[in-house]
Task: structure prediction
Amino acid sequence: MHVTTKWSCRWRGYPKALGWISEEQCRIRTLNSDAVEVLNRQIGKHPARVFTFRGNPIAWANTQAWREALKLARIEDFWWHYLRHTRAIWLARQGTPLNVLRELGGWESESMVRRYA
Result:
């Protein structure tokens, strides 16, 4: 899923088994308690969209403020897609079976899971 899709999430279907329904791929994404807490703090800030800034839906996350935050954190060469790989690696290290990783990550095959996790 492209990063812009994540920012355009809508409240429809939340919460569902502490997961998120991806409108693009119609899959339930499981969320940990920290992620659920973040989402719950967004409830009521906008009637349809989940992620907002000063009451307006966020259209894009790669803003000047984001780039400045990366500089302050001394993070270089950041790619949003890396977060997907990081999650898969962490889950694999905890013993999550490949078929479960495949479903959570939305990969088409277990060979893709092995490549990224």
Remarks:
- The chain has two domains: 1-76, 79-117.
- Confidence is low (pLDDT under 50) at residues 16-22.
- The first strand starts at residue 19 and ends at 21.
